[in-house]
Amino acid sequence: xxxxxxxxxxxxxxxxxxxxxxxxxxxxxxxxxxxxxxxxxxxxxxxxxxxxxxxxxxxxxxxxxxxxxxxxxxxxxxxxxxxxxxxxxxxxxxxxxxxxxxxxxxxxxxxxxxxxxxxxxxxxxxxxxxxxxxxxxxxxxxxxxxxxxxxxxxxxxxxxxxxxxxxxxxxxxxxxxxxxxxxxxxxxxxxxxxxxxxxxxxxxxxxxxxxxxxxxxxxxxxxxxxxxxxxxxxxxxxxxxxxxxxxxxxxxxxxxxxxxxxxxxxxxxxxxxxxxxxxxxxxxxxxxxxxxxxxxxxxxxxxxxxxxxxxxxxxxxxxxxxxxxxxxxxxxxxxxxxxxxxxxxxxxxxxxxxxxxxxxxxxxxxxxxxxxxxxxxx
Length: 378
Ligand SMILES: Cc1ncc(COP(=O)(O)O)c(C=O)c1O
Hints:
The protein is of the alpha/beta class. The protein folds into two domains: 8-15 and 52-312, Alpha-Beta Barrel (TIM Barrel); 320-378, no CATH class. The protein is built from eleven helices and 14 strands. Strand 5, helix 6 and strand 6 form a beta-alpha-beta unit. Helix 2 (54-69) runs parallel beside helix 9, helix 7 crosses helix 8 (232-253) and helix 8 packs across helix 9 (280-290). The radius of gyration is 22 Å and the shape is elongated. Bound molecules: pyridoxal-5'-phosphate (PLP). The site of pyridoxal-5'-phosphate (PLP) has 17 residues, from helix 10.
């Protein structure tokens, strides 16, 4: 892994401090909606479009770099590998790559998207928990880093390597079992969470220590302690466990066997406003305070932020096709139904969306608020 610090001066002016202020975001969104209507991107024949705030994405990428630059010792290699599942679109991945990010991929499909976006293999991390032999071979052939999910996967890797040293950085994913957050389905650090080696299970820590002792080529260690809904303190506690384990492995090896810690993603997104709260900077500062050894330059870092990079930069613009009522409940029938907002429709508490009304020219609607359901196709 090379040095992934970036000179941000080449980024457009929109990546300046003001570009991600909530008011600036809202103003850009309103201008984009107006332009989309004026240009016929959305209208009677084109009832729905997805808009992405390119300036906002660039600004967030710059802030993410700056957040970790501010807390790491000079020269520390830091790779921000965007979790592709958060926006699996090649142009977005290309934009992020231009802004200095890499990619965390969880399937051969995501790997193909990252590659199509021109992301070099040394900036890609493969984290699928169910890697087939062919997928492992392909990652090794490309030089893509991978994290083994469990003992069987590590044995599979052994068999493929057949005594050779892997050409890719390889780590093991652990589940620090520090507890869950407010979204059960996305809590990945409970005692029974599915991914990684459950570190506090009887014998598990020893198994990890032995696995590293037997394989000098295991140079990374990975944890992803939750995807949304996790308190920052709990995420930090999970990474404290990761760091302690790395220290123990390196001490046992008598050398810096683990040179890179992959700290996962999971920064919770506040879906209720245009503000980045908590911000990557606040999280990085908290991690620095809680686990200072992560940042003193002895370990390279990989992050895998997904939703916190893109969540504030997308707008689905849908035409209201009909208005009606049922049981005195007003309903706006649009083109944005469960097919575009699957999680929100089935689990609105965990995945709230903000909805704004615009007039036929794409100007924000003013006047009295009418509480209504928003419907659309499935
Ligand atoms: C291994 C791994 N890394 C990173 C992420 C990204 O998480 P988030 O979008 O919450 O940052 C996920 C999400 O599922 C994941 O499973």
